[in-house]
Amino acid sequence: MRTFILYVRQFRSAFQHRRYSFLSDLSRRQKVSGNWQTSDASKPLHNAGIARYLLPVSMVTRNLVTDSAIVANGVKEVSRAGPLVEYDRRIAEGELVDGDNCQVGTLRELQRLYDDLVMSANACSLDRYAASEKAGRSRWLWSRFIPQSSYSPVKGLYLYGGVGTGKTMLMDLFFNQLPDSWRKRRIHFHDFMLDVHSRLQRHKGVADPLEVVAGEISDEAVLLCLDEFMVTDVADALILNRLFRHLFSNGCILVSTSNRAPDKLYEGGLQRDLFLPFISTLKERCIIHEIGSSIDYRKMTSAEQGFYFIEKDASGLVKQKFQYLIGEHTAVPQEVEVVMGRKLQVPLGANGCAYFPFEDLCDKPLGAADYFGLFKKFHTLALEGVPIFGLHNRSAAYRFVTLVDVMYENKGRLLCTAEGSPLQLFERIVTIADAQNMAPRTSSRSRKNDDFDLCVDNELGFAKDRTISRLTEMNSKEYLEQHAAMLAEKQLSQDDGDEKALQA
């Protein structure tokens, strides 16, 4: 009976979607004959159209449902056309660079997923207003006695590729096109795992806390969009298989970006044999798609406009710039609340700016949780004394990579002194393949001339390119303008809140 009801819902959803698409297409055919055009019939769309590279005509007419509406909980919501059409709009308006076939190929996959989700929205229980809380509690109760699984009829998507290829931008473009009423969540992988560990701590003593945590997450969000999927921590590696087995069994759909192919995740990690079943599960529940591109879009920005200083004796300059950023405020030691009851000591902080010597932030046993806590309170970091990384300070290099990831995710601003350019900082960090390709010893190149500080580490070797790329972008004029706009928006929102509080 339950299967029959799900079938009827799927059929109804598909029928409604096709009806909307037909009416929308009919309306456009009356306005336009043959060519893709804007609302002004005299102006053709930039790029001669989506039809050049998008989808077959039968699919395009199904996708473009901008004139249709979906009613959820009595509220009329205009449906959107999907990531592919939005991408073309941004190119037409000059917001994005045209001509990257690799990004277009990825967008086809995202558009396919978008269409599948719209068609199966009811079957996947995506709409939070249509989903019954009572049914959710009932499912949880019955699962205590009768093992159940309800895999989603829609497969997710795992996007991987080199740095700066636009993976995060494309996933965000897809995510923002989905209806606001859907149970969806977009989060950085580091932040997601911190949330998982925090929930596990709360459910300590339960027979299977991972099952309870997976139940909570899947009740909150059916569609999980995880950015920068990267497994380096053995604690994360050991729980991922069981966690996602429960999530997928509860109907969750995963969309993820990563620098690593699934088979390369946690390569060389401790007890990796216990992690391998997760890779099989990932391949079973997601379509794997590689983004290939020779362009690093982060490095196309106007670099060398920021606060990255290479001078060895630049300590006084950093403090002077830090003082300039905090203005009339006085910097004093502060304390930051971190998840699971921990606290991070900030040497100096004021007006949203925090100052740290490198060793205080990256030589101590800190991690992503501490850095997320830091950037929840501060928007600017002054970091003094970033060293050249090698075998002797590999742990600090891992922390610095995580710090940059968290800072970039939170659109933080970096003011720092370093012993070299971003590229020079990681010159001694290489992958196993890089090490094997190095020139062999000869009579003129003996062992005594080898670089004994060379660090051969696959995870760090792959992560370094992302960090170099992000440091380059964070030092650009465009990034700093976005940071300033974010601060202005936050200030405006705070002022509005204060005004409403006074009126109340």
Tags for this model:
504 residues, alpha/beta, Rossmann fold, 2 domains, six-stranded mixed β-sheet, globular, ATP-binding, P-loop_NTPase, ATP binding, ATP hydrolysis activity, ATPase_AFG1-like
Detailed description of the structure:
By secondary structure, the protein is of the alpha/beta class. It has 2 domains: 2-291, P-loop containing nucleotide triphosphate hydrolases (Rossmann fold); 301-438 and 450-495, no CATH class. The protein contains 18 helices and 15 strands. The chain has helices at 2-31, 57-63, 83-92, 101-119, 133-145, 167-177, 189-202, 209-220, 234-249, 276-285, 315-326, 358-363, 368-377, 394-409, 422-425, 432-437, 458-474, 477-503, and strands at residues 69-72, 75-78, 156-161, 184-188, 223-227, 253-258, 286-291, 307-309, 332-337, 343-350, 353-357, 380-386, 413-418, 429-430, 455-456. The strands form 4 sheets. A 6-stranded mixed sheet has the order 8-13-12-11-10-9. A 5-stranded parallel sheet has the order 4-5-6-3-7. It has a two-stranded antiparallel ribbon with strand order 1-2. It is globular. Residues 1-79, 132-138 and 445-449 have low confidence and may be disordered.
